[in-house]
Amino acid sequence: MVNLQDQTDNELVERFIGGQEACLQILINRHKSRIYSYILMMVKQPALAEDVFQDTFIKVINNLKRGKYIENGKFPSWVMRISHNLIIDYYRKQKHMQMVSNDSIEYDLFNSSKFSDTNIEDKLVTDQILKDVASLVEYLPENQKEVVRLRHFMGLSFKEIAEETGVSINTALGRMRYAIINMRDMVEEQKISLTV
Fold this sequence. Notes:
By secondary structure, the chain is an all-alpha fold. The chain is globular and about 60 Å long.
């Protein structure tokens, strides 16, 4: 009889996809502390962190069942990326739902350049810049790409990146430095404008 506790993350994922539901609970228990701590650090509210944690694993289950997990030995990073995206989605929704009262102000809040068409243009330009940067990241060597994603998309410290990737902090810093140099070179070669 196989002891599921001794299985690697990827073996447990395969067994879960194959129908062994208990494997997911082992994965959750194995990585719960780290993932929950990350979420709580980002949202700073225990009740919200619980909600995001649950939503994260609902999304993990759905993605696993749809075959959207690519086996790369980095299951915790994949889960943290999902939680990070859910946190961003939550804050985007909150930003759009903020209530503003115009009653107690002497001037009209809504007659402001903030709400003019140029801001829509700025947003489109900013979105394009982010897309351009994301596409540049794809051309980086795998080890540099990984450091950029962990640092800028998942918010990990260089110490955490070093632990996650199994390299020294200096190596992680060096990879980030080379990634930035390579991306600057690509921007110049392709004449991409990264300003609003």
